[in-house]
Design a protein that fits this description.
Strands 1-2-5 form a three-stranded antiparallel β-sheet. It is extended and about 55 Å long. The protein is of the alpha+beta class. It contains four helices and five strands. It has two domains: 57 residues, no CATH class; 52 residues, IHF-like DNA-binding proteins (HU Protein, Chain A), CATH 4.10.520.10. The longest helix has 20 residues.
């Protein structure tokens, strides 16, 4: 089942937002599923806590038709302190990454 493009008129009708944060997500769940607001907030907190825990444990999160969150090794390198211009050493570290699924990419491009 493909995504349906949202027209500007529909965006205005449903109160389309350009971003979603935890609070907005909890409010959307609360309003649409008619559950207590505190329960919706707990659900959102639980989901993101589990995402973080999975990534910290060097895991990966794969959400069908949305995308994959994973961690990637970054090699140590030299950098420059933008305030002082001083050269600094940045050690090896893991960086969180996201790769969109083809379904999400196609939906964004209205295919």
């Amino acid at each position: 089942m493909g995504a349906i493009p949202i027209t500007p008129a529909k965006q205005k009708e449903v109160g389309f937002m350009r971003y979603i944060n935890r609070d907005i997500l909890a409010k959307m769940i609360y309003r649409n599923k008619k559950i207590p607001k505190t329960l919706a907030e707990e659900i959102v907190k639980y989901i993101f806590d589990e995402f973080q825990k999975t990534l910290v444990e060097d895991g990966e999160i794969d959400i069908a038709k949305f995308g994959k969150f994973y961690c990637k090794d970054r090699s140590p390198r030299k950098g420059v302190n933008p305030n002082t211009g001083e050269e600094i050493f940045i050690g090896k570290r893991l960086t969180p990454k996201f790769k969109a699924s083809s379904a999400l990419t196609n939906a964004i491009n209205h295919k």
